[in-house]
Amino acid sequence: MSESVRFELEFKLRHMPNRNGHYLHLRAWSLQEEMYLKRVTELDRITDIRNSQRKQHDDLRRQRLDEFMAGFSVITTRLKEMYQMITLGGDAELELVDSLDPFSEGIVFRSTSSTVHTNDPG
Fold first, then answer.
1. Rg of the Cα trace of the chain?
2. What pLDDT, on a 0 to 100 scale, did the predictor assign at position 122?
3. Tell me, what's the pLDDT at 88?
């Protein structure tokens, strides 16, 4: 409550004919308003802290995903190269089960053989 409003309220309370009854109600209202304003201030402070923590959490999740995907890409490329060397032309790769959230469902290993079947008549 601003000082001018508080001053005006106190002035009017002093000059009311039956000020005891009204004064108690107005004073109770004034105390409740002060408590409300303190709680609003506390809520705003806590909300700011929560928003800051949420932003930090989101930034860390994004960083975790970016670093995982960079490593996953390198590992997939090296796996493909190694599998082709070992199997003389086969193909292997790692795939994300859920590309939107790779941590929830994991990865899948897929491979195909390079074995060629020929019909040799003789």
1. 36
2. 46
3. 86
